């Protein structure tokens, strides 16, 4: 479903990605982990078609994203849901209108049907009562939850999450992961979660890829990475596990 093949990306003199490859089979979720600044968000932006690799390919269902232009690219990307690292809501719209936006843009649902769907989605993320507020009036955690509701409301085929729980209190973080898990079971999307939430995210994902110095150093199951003896992988997982809020 998602195949990243030998991608290279530099910004100026900084070579960030040095031949990154991995696959996510249809219906699976991959956790993409690794130290800050190593290029996890950059990889996600390549999968989303927002950045083009200097070299290499990103295949979605067999189509090479780099060869698609204009309408064909849009058609493919429309089936994606994104949760960006900073939330990214429209400031001038209420939470309700933000979440309703994709339905109003892309479906022929009536206002009444939209209202019902939006309220159901907001209830799932615990935002009932805040639907009339603007992004500037709610907390960072609430913005993340509203962004999640907006991303999931279209029931996308592919979901890309960039640190969905970072900056949230542990209880809200846990409920966001549970929400991603239940939506995944319901919709069956193929997904990538960029996260530092180790080991908690491991119960939600099927596979883990560890990005290290521009390449995928490890790709396997959560239990494999947890028991790895590799001199780079082991300290990374250990530090993350020690630092996790239990
Ligand atoms: N558009 C850009 N222009 C220039 N440099 C960029 C751009 N986007 C990312 N970078 C650089 O690429 C590197 C990787 O950034 P990225 O945001 O992917 O890190 P990350 O692994 O997601 O880190 P974090 O865990 O802190 O979010 C950084 O050095 C960053 O400064
Ligand atoms: Mg990032």
From TrEMBL:
Record domain ABC transporter: where: 2-238
Keywords recorded for this protein, A-Z: ATP-binding, Nucleotide-binding, Transport
Annotated organism of origin: uncultured Desulfobacterium sp
PROSITE patterns (alphabetical): ABC_TRANSPORTER_1, ABC_TRANSPORTER_2
Protein name: ABC transporter, ATP-binding protein
Higher taxonomy: Bacteria, Pseudomonadati, Thermodesulfobacteriota, Desulfobacteria, Desulfobacterales
Pfam families documented for this protein: ABC_tran
Molecular function as annotated in GO: ATP binding; ATP hydrolysis activity
């Amino acid at each position: 479903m998602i195949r990243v093949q030998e991608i290279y990306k530099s910004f100026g003199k900084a070579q960030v990605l040095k031949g990154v490859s991995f696959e996510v089979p249809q219906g699976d979720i991959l956790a993409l982990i690794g130290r800050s600044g190593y290029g996890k968000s950059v990889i996600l932006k390549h999968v989303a078609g927002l950045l083009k690799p200097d070299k290499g390919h990103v295949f979605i269902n067999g189509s090479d994203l780099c060869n698609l232009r204009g309408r064909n690219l849009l058609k493919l990307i429309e089936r994606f849901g994104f949760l960006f690292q900073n939330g990214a809501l429209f400031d001038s719209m209420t939470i309700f209108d933000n979440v309703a936006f994709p339905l109003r843009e892309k479906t022929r649902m009536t206002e009444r049907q939209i209202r019902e769907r939006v309220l159901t989605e907001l209830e799932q993320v615990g935002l009932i009562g805040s639907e009339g507020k603007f992004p500037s009036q709610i907390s960072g955690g609430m913005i993340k939850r509203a962004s999640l509701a907006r991303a999931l409301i279209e029931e996308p085929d592919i979901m890309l999450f960039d640190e969905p729980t970072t900056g949230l209190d542990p209880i809200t973080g846990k409920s966001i992961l549970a929400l991603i898990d239940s939506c995944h079971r319901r919709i069956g999307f193929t997904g990538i979660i960029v996260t530092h939430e180790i080991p908690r995210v491991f119960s939600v994902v099927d596979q883990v890829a560890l990005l290290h110095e521009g390449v995928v150093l490890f790709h396997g199951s959560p239990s494999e990475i947890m028991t790895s003896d590799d001199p780079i992988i082991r300290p990374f997982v250990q530090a993350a596990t020690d630092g996790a809020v239990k």
